[in-house]
Specification:
heterodimer; A: mainly beta; 20-stranded antiparallel beta sheet; 21 strands; B: alpha+beta; five-stranded antiparallel beta sheet; 23% helix
């Protein structure tokens, strides 16, 4: 028995290089594309898209076989077997291997300009930045004109406008391994805010613990189709407030073990640091100076003009304290400047 | 006038045909690949129910007692064959 039917011109399913499914039910009508099943894996050009245990409904206004285009516009994904979670995996099959994303969720929804994920666990990397979110929610702006799965566009949507909360957030680059507990990160059009109860920053053998951290920065506008990697950095150079109740590098040997009531304020290139540093007892720390971003050298240069420890002027000593707490390879103290290589 | 009625009828048929387009697959396993870049996506579907109604072409296979049937499938740029 043989059956053959014409499809739409330039049927987008033809772009699929590999399609595997098991225990799956697929319905495509003029109202919905409904995909339920245990496993589904698609290679669509350079994109590998795999899902496990999903009940996916993509709402459409007319019959289409353009599943990717329809589902990136208006979709709900929930577990097919409700006693288990859904798994969604996206990875770049090209030689560049730009991204890899694993999502475990009970609900993912996409509407016109909104992406929502109830997060059980997200792990991934994007341009060699490794990140993770456990037990939380991610709500991001989504470009209404998006027609294909475009990870770069989705990332820029999250930087444009988002709210991310999580019991645990992690971020890892070669020089730093950061874990943040009970965190919330908010990106508005012109601000970014981060709050956390507790965080740790690990580098080589050293670790710095931080309690009650908050960061608030200005932000340049993010236009989704224009790559603006310095949007947040530019904003933070313009206006930033960074506060924490306590910072402790207890595993390091040295006189200074912790700082409390730390505050760093940046206003149009001028910065002021205040805090209390523990030697035998707590003494005040006041540092002022200028900060600038050199995009050509990819550096942040902090020039310390004045520094007081207690009632005494002690610029080089204050720089040593700062260096001790930011003990990573890409931070150097040169004369009266701290240079952060980005 | 006859021409207008004919054109209207053709357009109406195409609209109705499009609104009736429908696909349903209940599969146990599906494995389709392209052997080379320009060859069509092809492979084997192990299924219980396939129903396709595209542009007025209707096709259905459904088994009883949860039995499976095997279908060879070919997906070309403008055509689905099984």
């Amino acid at each position: 028995m043989k059956f053959s039917t014409p499809l739409e011109d330039n049927n987008p399913l033809y772009g699929i290089d590999k399609l595997n499914a098991s225990k799956a039910e697929v319905e495509m009508s003029h109202e919905v594309i409904d995909v339920k099943g245990d496993d589904l894996a698609v290679h669509l050009g350079p994109i590998n898209f795999e899902v496990n245990n999903i009940n996916m409904q993509c709402r459409v206004s007319e019959f289409t076989t353009a599943i990717d285009e329809a589902c990136i516009q208006n979709t709900t994904i929930k577990p097919y077997d409700e006693s288990k979670i859904s798994k969604i995996r996206l990875s770049d099959l090209s030689e560049k291997k730009l991204y890899n994303l694993d999502i475990q969720t009970n609900e993912l929804s996409i509407e016109e300009d909104d992406l929502f994920i109830e997060v059980k666990n997200i792990k991934g990397n994007y341009l060699n930045n490794h990140f993770g979110i456990s037990r939380g929610e991610l709500n991001c702006y989504k470009d209404p004109e998006l027609k294909i799965i475009d990870v770069e566009n989705l990332v820029y949507g999250c930087l444009k406008r988002s709210k991310i909360i999580g019991e645990k957030l992690s971020y890892q680059i070669p020089s730093l391994n950061m874990h943040i507990n009970k965190a919330s990160v908010i990106f508005d059009e012109d601000k970014m805010k981060l709050h956390s109860d507790y965080a740790s920053f690990k580098n080589k053998g050293s670790v710095t613990y931080v309690a009650a951290m908050s960061l608030e920065c200005d932000k340049d506008p993010i236009v989704v189709d224009i790559n603006n990697p310095n949007a947040i950095l530019n904003g933070c150079m313009r206006s930033m407030t960074f506060k924490l109740d306590r910072m402790d590098n207890g595993t390091q040997k040295g006189q200074v073990k912790d700082i409390k009531n730390f505050k760093l304020a940046v206003n149009t290139g001028n910065f002021k640091i205040t805090g209390k540093v523990k030697f035998v007892f707590y003494v005040s720390l006041d540092v002022t100076g200028k900060v600038k971003h050199d995009p050509k050298k990819k550096q942040i240069v902090i020039d310390v003009n004045k520094a007081k420890v207690g009632k005494f002027s002690a610029r080089s000593f204050a720089l040593k304290i700062v260096k001790k707490f930011i003990n990573v390879d890409n931070v150097k103290v040169v004369d009266n400047s701290i240079i952060i290589q980005l | 006038m006859k021409k207008l009625i004919l054109v209207t009828a053709v357009l109406l048929y195409q609209t109705m045909a499009k609104s009736n387009d429908y696909m349903y697959f209940l599969v146990d396993s599906l494995n389709m690949t392209k052997n080379e870049l320009k060859t069509p996506l092809s492979g084997e579907i192990l299924a219980k129910h396939i129903y396709v109604n595209m542009m007025g072409n209707e096709f259905e296979i459904q088994t009883q007692n949860d039995e499976l049937f095997v279908a060879d499938a070919i997906l070309e740029s403008d055509r689905f064959t099984s």
